[in-house]
Give the backbone structure.
Amino acid sequence: MEIIDGNQIAASINRELHAEVASLTGRKPCLALVRVGEDPASVSYVKKKEKTAAEIGVTSRIILPPITITQGELFRLIDELNENSTVDGILVQSPLPPHLDEVAVFRRVNPEKDVDGFNTVNLGKIAQEDSSGFVACTPAGIMELLARSHVDLNGKHVVVLGRSLIVGKPIALLALQKKTGANATVTICHSATQNLPAITRQADVLIAAIGRPNFVTATMIKPGAVVIDVGINRLADPSKKSGYRLTGDVNFSEVAPLCSKITPVPGGVGPMTVAMLMQNTVKAFRLRSSR
Amino acid sequence: MEIIDGNQIAASINRELHAEVASLTGRKPCLALVRVGEDPASVSYVKKKEKTAAEIGVTSRIILPPITITQGELFRLIDELNENSTVDGILVQSPLPPHLDEVAVFRRVNPEKDVDGFNTVNLGKIAQEDSSGFVACTPAGIMELLARSHVDLNGKHVVVLGRSLIVGKPIALLALQKKTGANATVTICHSATQNLPAITRQADVLIAAIGRPNFVTATMIKPGAVVIDVGINRLADPSKKSGYRLTGDVNFSEVAPLCSKITPVPGGVGPMTVAMLMQNTVKAFRLRSSR
């Protein structure tokens, strides 16, 4: 059994991006990070993105509108970033406060600067197998983890647990693409699925993205399967300084011995998302420069 | 075993649409049908659409550019229709001649007039479960056939054969939606799928859309399954005046006795597509009028 080391793979990607950005003459790729309000998790996510951008040589521009910003004001802010020729990528950190319509905000971002991959057009492009678009960072990170762990999905049965718009559906569409490394048979399961263990036991590759701690147990696994755990659940743990520990959707201790490869939580899919954001930003820069 | 009568269901929908259109005061919904060149199948499809529109009371406008039209000229034609406030829906009949880029043409159509549902934005909206978009006519027709045949997909295992952009992927995303009538577990199979009969035998509802005549045989069916045959294959048949007969992807004579419900070919999914085009056109009219 091999534990897939997301930290190490993300670090490799960041090094490659650093070399790529260093080789650029003139202006460097620029990522605008928009954070509305002071949500503590958002503060820490944006800080992490800013830090990684700096390591790679990507310019970041941090915009911190107050939590009272109206939808119209946020739209105008996004419009300005859309039109600003020195900005390549735009990320609006979610969650947004409840008075703002998140989907409408994501749609406002120019698809060509939508490095978060949440715009409707970029979702449609995954279905169209059109690689000119941007894939959301978590599903993109999963595909990259699999490729760099030498897991070829061709002809394999991939079972996805969860049908969310940011993980389940895009990863299913990516695994299904008629491309090298993909080309899998795909089953998508969710809360209404009957006889779930009978289905997950058919998975050559099981991708768990349902947000329920330790949900996937040994009886749900075919021996030799590859298991990708997308869950990031906080469980109360008084022994930790933070008061909690992170747990995936997979019961790691009982499932891992059955697997050929498995991602841990933390240190699996998580670290990949920021690397993919940077990769998307460099891609946006290149696409815009070549136009 | 019940044979699902697509002709009858389509006729009901057309009658409902006729009543709806008759109740409109003022301008009627208008569909622009663009047919490039004289491909015989396209001539007959466009004629059928024009005829059904007339029956329902939808105005149709037929535009017949020559096969020599350039991409730029076709774009300008579409732009004019996009801007024309008396046009509600635009359909560019496929296939287009090889010198025209079909995907680019479909993307040129304003998503709000894209009654064919082929624009990237409308694909993305299916994934987003955003019902303000337009679903392509074949997958929309399948969902309508199932609903009007009282097949509730909730908790059922739907297996889709084929991953095309116009049938396989959208029908998979529709069956997966967290909506009344949908909410299914979905598996998508294709040419690279291993042990296909073992997967299709798990299907409560099997949707065959691969374009291979009589491909689905009795050994691939779970007794009691619902089978939807999307295939329209022409087989040479000297006994017919036309010289061919239409055959689905399902070996009807051996599969039908095992099913609870099955669609025939012809007379199953086929007749639904024009009815769905008309439904989309009336929807486009209503959405534009309410704006």
